[in-house]
């Protein structure tokens, strides 16, 4: 009998007792390559001495000081670091403990902004199907994952959904990226007009989709067209980079690649790289100033916001990434990872698509490459792949189930930014062995 309630009782888990570099070790001393960074978290790998030293130093000085009594130097320094590097004028940083908290804060900030500037009718949020924004009630409400939402529907605030940018399944033959992007932006605009622009607060999207559909990078110009639609109707653009931000795609903020800046961005996983729980929301000066000049402060807060030890860990993580030029490695190793997966599995009959950006890579499995039909849900392919990968000493993040009527089996690979070329080859070898062991083709 176990007393731990947060894990699936049908699963038997090994105990992680040691970690080093790109590997975790169990009680028998078996090593597992962390090829998914847990859930795209451990971007620096495990046991990084500089981060450990920074955390120890902070624990010795001030582990925690409540944000209504004190600030700390590491909290201020981390905010400066992020604001100086963020696109646009995302100059104001609000630290929380994780991704869902960051998204909740973003939704409430957008709402309060419109109340402050005298547009209180703006209360609707539009998001996308096949999206995930967190498990707290507000974040769950805007998420587009029917399976996660269904049991809680009576408790969820009303949200509206439009199509995701899912080129593999939705881009029509002969349709260019630009035409596809325009079609999706037109759909968003139609939804805004249907609700009445004066009633819409924000459009929320993951810059690169992660946890629902095996990594979906947007097509070229998608976010430029979306930004134009939002601007035309006074709707805020909130980008959720909880998974895709902080260098995962090879840029500190994933939207830099798309050539736009949102009004609010959320980050979390790679921010503290798992050394401490931390997330953040960055808001533009326009929003911050309206609130300061209005009621004076954002009506929100959590006990652990701006947690000193969490900020110390995150600052050390971000400084190491910059000092060691790891984003260049993310770009190089990401190219290598996708090329090697295509070399080994590109022609496999059950591998429909291999896609991604930087070290954020998804593989979509299908029953038939020709018609992209999904595998039989009863096979639970994604879950079986995960189990077999663990037997092969490889951690990869599975995703599956019926999402908004679309059945899918996906795997997410998000190896640490410190991976060498040899590490990538080993990950691909173990991954290929796992896939071919279950789906011989
Ligand atoms: N947004 C996105 C895009 C995510 O991927 C996640 C977590 N998978 C969340 C929000 C929620 O973050 P957390 O689990 O830290 O609450």
UniProtKB/TrEMBL annotation:
<keyword id="KW-0663">Pyridoxal phosphate</keyword>
<dbReference type="InterPro" id="IPR049704">
    <property type="entry name" value="Aminotrans_3_PPA_site"/>
</dbReference>
<dbReference type="Pfam" id="PF00202">
    <property type="entry name" value="Aminotran_3"/>
</dbReference>
<keyword id="KW-0032">Aminotransferase</keyword>
<dbReference type="InterPro" id="IPR015424">
    <property type="entry name" value="PyrdxlP-dep_Trfase"/>
</dbReference>
<keyword id="KW-0808">Transferase</keyword>
<comment type="similarity">
    <text>Belongs to the class-III pyridoxal-phosphate-dependent aminotransferase family.</text>
</comment>
<protein>
    <submittedName>
        <fullName>Aspartate aminotransferase family protein</fullName>
    </submittedName>
</protein>
<dbReference type="InterPro" id="IPR015422">
    <property type="entry name" value="PyrdxlP-dep_Trfase_small"/>
</dbReference>
<dbReference type="InterPro" id="IPR005814">
    <property type="entry name" value="Aminotrans_3"/>
</dbReference>
<dbReference type="GO" id="GO:0008483">
    <property type="term" value="F:transaminase activity"/>
</dbReference>
<dbReference type="InterPro" id="IPR015421">
    <property type="entry name" value="PyrdxlP-dep_Trfase_major"/>
</dbReference>
